[in-house]
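USER: Fancy drafting a protein?

ASSISTANT:
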Amino acid sequence: QLRLVESGGGLVQPGGSLRLSCAASGFTLDYYTIGWFRQAPGKEREGVSCISSSGGSTHVADPVKGRFTISRDNAKNTVYLQMDSLKPEDTAVYYCAADRTTVQAMCVNLRRPEYWGQGTQVTVSS
C-alpha cells in the first residue's frame, strides 16, 4: 500500500520555525516529484513548494519565498519543508503529495498529484 505520512506540525509563535517531514512507505520516492500544499480554514488548497525527483529543481510560492526551504533525502525516502520566520497567515493544514511529473506541472500549472498524505496542522499564534 502506497502511503505518505506527514509529521512535524504543531503550535509555534510568530517568527518561529518548524520542519515538516513527508515519509513514504510502500514505494520509493526516487522517481517522484514531491509537493507541499496547505489549506487554511475557509480557503482553497494552495501550493507551497515542490521539488523534482533528483532534487535539482525546486519551486517556492511567492508568499513563502525566502522563508521556506524544501529538500529531500532519497536514502531516507523522506522530503522536508523547513519553515522559518513563520507568520500567523501560515496557519493551515499542510499536505505532501507525490506524482511522476515535473515541478512546473505540479507547482506552477497545479496539476493535481496522484498520492496525498493525511496532513499535519501548523498553527502560528502568540
Observations:
- The helical segments are 103-108.
- The two ends are 40 Å apart (CA to CA).
